[in-house]
Amino acid sequence: MILAVTGLQRERRILASPGVEVVTGGGDQARLEAALDHHVPGMRGVVSIGIAGALAPGLRPGNWVVATAVSDGGAALPTDPAWTDWLVARLPAPERGVVLGVDAIAATAAQKSELRRSSMAVAVDMESHVAARVAHRHRLPFVVARVVSDAANRTLPPAARVGMRRDGSIDLPAILRSLMAAPWQLPALIRTGLEAETAFRALLRGHRLLGPRLGGP
């Protein structure tokens, strides 16, 4: 089995397949790390896969990123070279580079710009650093393959920042409350949703290209 680590229940549904155990983070890194430590015995490798925010200016929704390393609090945790090369060969024109793991959503263009400056990472998500720590602790091969959902110059509206529950499902009441408090954000929320749909479609196509066990050892 391969252990796949992602953030949302929708990503889990896309990635679930024979030979792959999917664990969702839901933005709770402590719970995610405990869950991964629980599931990792007997696994052959760990992959962080799903959507991410772009930090590199040229990346757009639907573009793939394959990590050469994960930046975790300034420490660089390398990915498995052979498995990484396999992903690069099968995904459509992926960007290679460092992926940054953070504990809170990078919601604004200014935040992304500062993270890019300080880390030189190409993309950011809230699960890869946790997955990397667990994989390295258990001495398992580890890779990252992420699809860009929001570009580096994109600021997410407030409703998009409150829309995830701890189990990775969508918190529709929280989104509606945010919209009622600030109706002006509706156009930006629609745009964010459309760009996320582009990313989810790319994730589905990429999963089909990678096939069973996502190329894991």
**Low-pLDDT runs:** none
How big a fraction of the residues is strand? 15-25%
Mean pLDDT: 95
Cα-to-Cα separation, first versus last residue: 9 Å
Rg estimate, integer Å: 16 Å
Largest sheet: 5 strands, mixed, barrel
- String of helices and strands: EHEHEEEHEHEHEHHH
Number of strands: 8
Spatial strand arrangement across the major sheet: 3-7-6-4-8
Number of helices: 8
User: What gross morphology would you assign?
Assistant: globular
- Helix-and-strand structural type: alpha/beta
Percent helix range: 40-55%
Explain what you see.
The chain is of the alpha/beta class and 217 residues long. Helix content is 41%, strand content 24%. The chain is built from eight helices and eight strands. Strands 3-7-6-4-8 form a five-stranded mixed barrel, surrounded by four helices. Helix 1 runs parallel beside helix 8 (186-210) and helix 2 packs parallel to helix 5. It is globular, with a radius of gyration of 16 Å.
Short description:
The chain is an alpha/beta fold. The chain is built from eight helices and eight strands.
Give a quick set of tags describing it.
217 residues; alpha/beta; five-stranded mixed beta barrel
How do the helices and strands line up, and which of them pair or pack?
Elements: E1 2-6, H1 9-15, E2 20-24, H2 29-39, E3 45-54, E4 64-72, E5 75-78, H3 81-90, E6 95-101, H4 109-119, E7 123-125, H5 128-137, E8 142-150, H6 158-161, H7 172-181, H8 186-210
Parallel strand pairs: 1-2, 1-3, 3-8, 4-6, 6-7
Antiparallel strand pairs: 3-7, 4-5, 4-8
